[in-house]
Amino acid sequence: MDTRTPQALKTPPPGLWQEWRARLARPRLIAVLAAILITVFIAASWIMERSAHVTTADARIAADMVAVSSDVSGRVTALHVGVGERVSAGDLLYTIDDRQARHQLSEYEADAARLDAEIAREEARIGLSASRASSEIDASRAGTRSADASIEAARSDLAAAQRDYDRTRNLFDRGLTTQSALDQVTNRLESARQTLAMAQARRASASAEQRKAVVSSEEVGLIERDLDVLRADRQRIAARIERQKVVLDQHRIRSPVDGVVDELFYDVGEHTLLGFRVALLHDPDTVRVEANIKETQVRHVQPGAPVDIHVDSAPEAEVTGRVDLVRNLTVAEAAMMPNPNATGVFTKITQRIPVRIAIDPPGDGTQLRPGTMVRVKIDKGEAPRAEAGK
Q1: Which residues contact 223 (CB under 8 A, 6 or more apart)?
Q2: Backbone torsion region of residue 271, taken as left when φ is above 0, otherwise alpha when ψ lies between -120 and 50, otherwise beta
Q3: What confidence score (pLDDT) does residue 241 get?
């Protein structure tokens, strides 16, 4: 056979063809073996990862959202912050028209001033009445003592006049004295009797004056009762003033917490109503992760377990945390409108348990926004023996 024909030239000798196939088979074998090893390594790593961690993408950043509401109705006259600004507790957010509240406060303060003047007047009356009553009582007592002394003196004079009369009468009856002498002692006796009667009358008048002074002193007690009524009115007005100051302060809506302003629902000139929310805030320093773990895996999640957190909005950030709380009910049971099986056809669905994760402060200052999605990887922990035995 002619080996130089075109067909012969296209077909290599059998030994050379086998050599070429052997050479080509070695790289393929190496590549296949390398691919098998890489696949085994990846599968082993995945299995080890799955066996050591509980992972889920059903997780998000959460925070305590604070809805600030208005305690009064009125027109917004000033807006002091903007969306996204950081505020401290007590910082002013809105100002509501407070002219009517100020006028009411001025009216209460005027009533308080009037009552203060009336209280001062009654206190002065008490002082004057007490002083006058004391003077009258002292004077009436002095008059009573003077009347008693006059009565004693008049009785003494009457007794002396009576003795003179008896002696003179005895002498007259015996003819040893004249009629004029008897008339004189008789006049003295009558005069002494009149003097005693007048002293007794003055004593009765002094007693009446003393009783009148005592009655006047009791008028001080009546004034004190009126003063107590005025003081009670003053306390009521003071309470109204304090309440009105609270109402006036409620026209200035302030931030209740340190945080960030997420939303403002009113602009200047708009009219807000009592109880309507006007702003929404949250504290970025207290954000957390709310994850929903499958019920088949939740037994491996224990409070305190370390967690790696991958933030979708900041994939390069290294965020860590720890399991803070494992809830005792499923997400479905916690829903506002549970979905009961009303058709009678049952389909088993793996339920999820809410788990709260406390976030460690990010070292690079990564901003974690509530509502953004994250993926969490929780280190598995052994269940407590008491629970494992149940």
Answers
A1: 122, 125, 126, 129
A2: beta
A3: 95
**Domain around 125:** 100-249
Enter the tokens of residue 223. 């004034």
Does residue 56 belong to any structural domain of this protein?
Answer: no
Distance of alpha carbon 202 from alpha carbon 384, whole angstroms: 106
Question: Quick one: how far is CA 20 from the chain centroid?
Answer: 90
Which pLDDT does position 233 carry in this prediction?
A: 92
- State the pLDDT at residue 200: 77
Report whether 79 contacts 267 (CB < 8 A): yes
Same domain for 274 and 162: no
Q: How far is CA 19 from the centre of its chain?
A: 92
User: 374 with 312: CB under 8 angstroms?
Assistant: yes
Task: Give whole-number Cα distances, 49 to 301, 315, 323, in Å.
Answer: 15, 20, 18
Residue 230, CB-side half-sphere exposure with 13 Å CA sphere: 19
Residue showing tokens 């009576």: 162
Q: What residues are paired with 79 via a beta bridge? A: 94
Q: Distance between CA 100 and CA 91 in Å, rounded?
A: 24
Task: Please count the residues of the chain.
Answer: 390
Question: Which pair of structure tokens corresponds to residue 380?
Answer: 């598995």
- Whether 176 and 262 map to the same domain: the answer is no
What predicted TM-score, i.e. pTM, was given to this entire model? 0.60
| Res 390: pLDDT | 39
CB distance 63 to 260 below 8 Å: no
Same domain, 220 and 113: yes
383 C-beta neighbours (distance < 10 Å), count: 14
Q: State the residue for tokens 């026209």.
A: 251
Least Cα distance to 220 among 118, 139, 134 occurs for 134
- pLDDT score at 49: 61
Mean pLDDT by 10 residues, the chain (390 residues): 50 59 61 75 66 84 92 93 92 94 94 92 78 67 73 79 80 76 79 80 74 67 83 93 94 93 93 92 90 89 91 86 90 69 71 91 76 90 45
Q: Is residue 142 part of a domain?
A: yes
Burial class, 55, CB count within 10 angstroms (exposed 0-12 / middle 13-18 / buried 19+): middle
What is the CATH classification number for the domain harbouring 265?
A: 2.40.50.100
**275 φ/ψ sector (left φ>0, alpha ψ -120 to 50, else beta):** left
